[in-house]
Amino acid sequence: MPHLLVFVLEVPAGHLERSPTRRQREAGGIGIDQGVTQRLALSDGSFVANPRLAAAQAQRIRRMQRSMDRKRAAGAPGAEPSARYKRVRDRYAAAQRSLATARAGFLHRETARIATRYVFVAVEDLHVRNMTRTAKGTLVEPGARVRQKAGLNRAILDAGFGAAIRMLEYKTRRSGAGFVKVDAAYTSQTCHQCGYTSKESRESQARFRCVQCGHTANADTNAASNVLALARSQLASDAGRVETRAEGHLSGTASVSDESRRPAWPHRTGTTTRRRSSTH
Fold first, then answer.
1. For a tag site, which of 50, 51, 116, 273 has the least CB within 10 Å?
2. In 3-state terms, what secondary structure has residue 56?
3. Least confident of 74-88, 158-172, 203-217, 231-245
């Protein structure tokens, strides 16, 4: 009787890494702002549209949910679910699996494209659980705009904010690029041109107009540019944790002041100074 021999070879993760390509080095770094209107806004002015996968299937899924509720209510308490109920339940489960597969496929394609194109990728350090908390409040202090907040929560969860960050993190590592997380505070309210921060500058979801210098831009592009500037500042001042596989084989805590370990980050700038309004 033939025997099957299985050999397991353990290779240190560092041995599987590679340096960024020439195209990546020429492209430089990129900042990304995540959203639900535009799924990804890049600091170079380009966008990745939101496919709104859950919204496209929402009506069909709601019909199946209502059908299951009716069939469950029609049965006797504690009785075995009917055959019709089981068929609808199976179709509902299949629809949810299909939705999850489509969402993952979309994110994998877009994050792989970005991770292999730039020498480093900068994103906001988002806390999705906090972002999607309910606005219901309590009996003593009821929440405001509960329905609108619930809709936003569904859109954020459908978009997969956290999944996109995780995918970018390991895909940049595989492609030899760097990965930087920056503080998300005020990135959408700060003017990329002059550094002035004011919530009044965000005129609408799509339009940013600085009340200080008059600079106008797409609001998401402006935020992505701020993300990129913060990442460059972190790299230049050794103020942040940098996950990178760029030239120089630097990983973990980056000390860019050490020339012997300094990776060839392009377009490095000095630390940016922000002027915040008195309202913040």
1. 273
2. helix
3. 231-245
Catalytic residue list contains 33:
yes
Q: What residue numbers bound the domain in which 175 lies?
A: 22-276
CB 208 within 8 A of CB 201: yes
What's the structural domain count of the chain? 1
Q: Across 35-70, where does the E strand assignment appear?
A: 38-42, 47-49
Does residue 12 lie within any of the structural domains? no
Q: Structure tokens of 137? A: 């409040």
- Asked whether residue 178 is assigned to any structural domain, the reply reads yes
Catalytic residue among 110, 158, 220, 243: 220
Of 10, 17, 26, 33, which residue is the catalytic one?
A: 33
In a domain, 6, yes or no: no
Which entry of 17, 80, 110, 124 is annotated as an active-site residue? 124
Question: Has 124 been annotated as catalytic?
Answer: yes
